[in-house]
Amino acid sequence: MVGMQEQVFVWKIIELHDKYVAYVTECFQGHTLFHKALKEAFEVFCNKGVSGSSNAELLATFCDNILKKGCSEKLSDEAIEDALEKVVRLLAYISDKDLFAEFYRKKLARRLLFDKSANDEHERSILTKLKQQCGGQFTSKMEGMVTDLTVARDHQTKFEEFVAGHPELNPGIDLAVTVLTTGFWPSYKTFDINLPAEMVKCVEVFKEFYQTRTKHRKLTWIYSLGTCNINAKFDAKPIELIVTTYQAALLLLFNGSERLSYSEIATQLNLSDDDVVRLLHSLSCAKYKILNKEPANRSISPNDVFEFNSKFTDRMRRIKIPLPPVDEKKKVVEDVDKDRRYAIDASIVRIMKSRKVMGHQQLVAECVEQLSRMFKPDFKAIKKRIEDLITRDYLERDKDNANTYKYLA
């Protein structure tokens, strides 16, 4: 399912739920039997996949579309609040709430970091609703992310004051840095890209400023999330290019060289081949051909040679050059699976620490009960985690009964 279809599908589920809730409350006076039937029916329906997507992902995408700039303008504040309230109600039927949380967190990160969020109040409002529905642990990281952005704005103001007070440090480039707390945000790959000298100076100036704020924190730069505005001088007219930090680093190489081979670019940037291919494709084969390539085909190979396309022009004076999107779904699912293993381990250890000795069936049942608020653990996964904890000397099997475990302090 894509884009508009996803939105329509979730709106239809909301309408369907509203309709049957009205039947239960008005026609059947809210009788518990009908409430139970409604709950069971929606649990079955909401835990089925749709065209390769889980409903957890669809609900997270629906929220993202409603909360993003450009989408929310079509709805009144009351309509947005109502829709968010109803999505959170639907989430109650979904077993994989942790999967929703991870998809939602990834999308929230993009809204916050790229200034795509339409309204801070709505962002905080849905977190309050999610907290009431799923508990404080569910939203703690997301709340931390929203708070980080508020603190980051203060940092930025102080940084600008610092540069104004030390003109000798001014890098000559307008720089905005968002400092994030590692534990709150999704994990991002950090590469040691070779930045151009202009950017290196910016980084050094900010580091010097940050040292005046705190001596006990280490900054890890995530250049893959950065954006740059570059003034490109073409023959016809100058055009402002809005690009990623990686794209900017690549383009700035052409200030010093007219022609560069694929291998020269890869060596100078110190990026993986996958990243270099994506960057070069976006700048030479996509809609805006800022670079000319030889041979002039639509695929990137190690033998290609590139040069700045001085003849490029466009009717706009400011253009955004997107990178091909990366499918995040696989990474989200992997992260959730990893977190589930930790959660199952922690649950088993908690139970066994309290009980000391326990039968297999009873341990599995208690583990499922403890974790079912966030996800429905698979029996095989629990068995596998028990075996792993035995090999790590947290538990041992009873010598007289293989189906009974003992806790090893």
Automatic annotation (TrEMBL):
<comment type="similarity">
    <text>Belongs to the cullin family.</text>
</comment>
<dbReference type="InterPro" id="IPR045093">
    <property type="entry name" value="Cullin"/>
</dbReference>
<dbReference type="InterPro" id="IPR016157">
    <property type="entry name" value="Cullin_CS"/>
</dbReference>
<dbReference type="InterPro" id="IPR001373">
    <property type="entry name" value="Cullin_N"/>
</dbReference>
<dbReference type="InterPro" id="IPR019559">
    <property type="entry name" value="Cullin_neddylation_domain"/>
</dbReference>
<protein>
    <submittedName>
        <fullName>Cullin-1</fullName>
    </submittedName>
</protein>
<dbReference type="Pfam" id="PF10557">
    <property type="entry name" value="Cullin_Nedd8"/>
</dbReference>
<dbReference type="InterPro" id="IPR036317">
    <property type="entry name" value="Cullin_homology_sf"/>
</dbReference>
<dbReference type="GO" id="GO:0031625">
    <property type="term" value="F:ubiquitin protein ligase binding"/>
</dbReference>
<dbReference type="InterPro" id="IPR016159">
    <property type="entry name" value="Cullin_repeat-like_dom_sf"/>
</dbReference>
<dbReference type="InterPro" id="IPR036388">
    <property type="entry name" value="WH-like_DNA-bd_sf"/>
</dbReference>
<feature type="domain" description="Cullin family profile">
    <location>
        <begin position="54"/>
        <end position="284"/>
    </location>
</feature>
<dbReference type="GO" id="GO:0031461">
    <property type="term" value="C:cullin-RING ubiquitin ligase complex"/>
</dbReference>
<dbReference type="Pfam" id="PF00888">
    <property type="entry name" value="Cullin"/>
</dbReference>
<dbReference type="InterPro" id="IPR059120">
    <property type="entry name" value="Cullin-like_AB"/>
</dbReference>
<dbReference type="Pfam" id="PF26557">
    <property type="entry name" value="Cullin_AB"/>
</dbReference>
<dbReference type="InterPro" id="IPR036390">
    <property type="entry name" value="WH_DNA-bd_sf"/>
</dbReference>
<keyword id="KW-0832">Ubl conjugation</keyword>
<dbReference type="GO" id="GO:0006511">
    <property type="term" value="P:ubiquitin-dependent protein catabolic process"/>
</dbReference>
<dbReference type="InterPro" id="IPR016158">
    <property type="entry name" value="Cullin_homology"/>
</dbReference>
